[in-house]
Amino acid sequence: MSKLLRKPNNQEIAQGVTLVHDVTSENSSLEYVGFKIIDLAPGVTYTEELGKQECCIVAVTGKINVSDRDVTYENIGTRKSVFEKQPTDSVYVSNDHIFDVEAVSGARVALCYSPSEKQLPTRLISASENGVEQRGTGNNKRMVHNILPDSDPSANSLLVVEVFTESGNWSSYPPHKHDQDNLPQESFLEETYYHEMNPPQGFVFQRVYTDDRSLDETMTVENGNVVIVPVGYHPVGVPEGYTSYYLNVMAGPKRIWKFHNDPDHEWILKR
Ligand SMILES: O=C[C@H](O)[C@@H](O)[C@H](O)CC(=O)O
């Protein structure tokens, strides 16, 4: 199995707290991006102390209360399933804070991390603030919810976005990359994909590859899997009959999303 593909761990780390995924710089090749998925039983609280990292706490499904021990946001979260295709609520917490996530209902929560040295205000990113974008044409259509885009100055290095791709369509396509710290042409952003499928037995194909093909992995990605994108192009293809969801976390030396399309495939944009 590719080292870039992670299946759910589903490790119970406390009563009612299941660590589904935990991508760190210690257990991956990533230096900037960290990512957790936790499942919380109703009434259970997960607490974490941030060092020099910021965190975007995404209410993937269910309702949660989030506190940084100064401010508390209650009953955040808008959906029982991501496939309701409604934007959801998130909370941004910067470095050197303790945060608590209390499950009001059973909840799946994404914890999206990146480096942070400068404390910024804790902030509710409400569902209504998500920029919703219909991107692409033909069989390349997808819907994007911009949760924490580079146009939002709330964070130091973190970018968070979720993408829905319908049956028979492609996303992150034409293949693009952002693995060179070479602005204004391209920025360097590592990336993680947290995938869900509807119906859940579905799968997508995701390829992660570089121009010189020194990295070239094509993965069958199933419901609940994570794909790590340290470098390279990273297109996703969705088979007929299924809807794909993924949550992206990106971070790098500069908080700018400037990608470079694979020149072999950029022509499709000019039809
Ligand atoms: O670089 C960003 C990620 O690859 C996705 O968010 C991608 O941009 C989604 C898309 O455009 O299809």
TrEMBL record:
<comment type="function">
    <text>Involved in the isomerization of 5-deoxy-glucuronate (5DG) to 5-dehydro-2-deoxy-D-gluconate (DKG or 2-deoxy-5-keto-D-gluconate).</text>
</comment>
<dbReference type="GO" id="GO:0008880">
    <property type="term" value="F:glucuronate isomerase activity"/>
</dbReference>
<dbReference type="InterPro" id="IPR024203">
    <property type="entry name" value="Deoxy-glucuronate_isom_IolB"/>
</dbReference>
<comment type="pathway">
    <text>Polyol metabolism; myo-inositol degradation into acetyl-CoA; acetyl-CoA from myo-inositol: step 4/7.</text>
</comment>
<dbReference type="GO" id="GO:0019310">
    <property type="term" value="P:inositol catabolic process"/>
</dbReference>
<dbReference type="InterPro" id="IPR023770">
    <property type="entry name" value="IolB_Bacilli"/>
</dbReference>
<keyword id="KW-0413">Isomerase</keyword>
<dbReference type="InterPro" id="IPR014710">
    <property type="entry name" value="RmlC-like_jellyroll"/>
</dbReference>
<dbReference type="GO" id="GO:0102482">
    <property type="term" value="F:5-deoxy-D-glucuronate isomerase activity"/>
</dbReference>
<comment type="similarity">
    <text>Belongs to the isomerase IolB family.</text>
</comment>
<dbReference type="InterPro" id="IPR011051">
    <property type="entry name" value="RmlC_Cupin_sf"/>
</dbReference>
<dbReference type="InterPro" id="IPR021120">
    <property type="entry name" value="KduI/IolB_isomerase"/>
</dbReference>
<protein>
    <recommendedName>
        <fullName>5-deoxy-glucuronate isomerase</fullName>
        <ecNumber>5.3.1.30</ecNumber>
    </recommendedName>
</protein>
<dbReference type="Pfam" id="PF04962">
    <property type="entry name" value="KduI"/>
</dbReference>
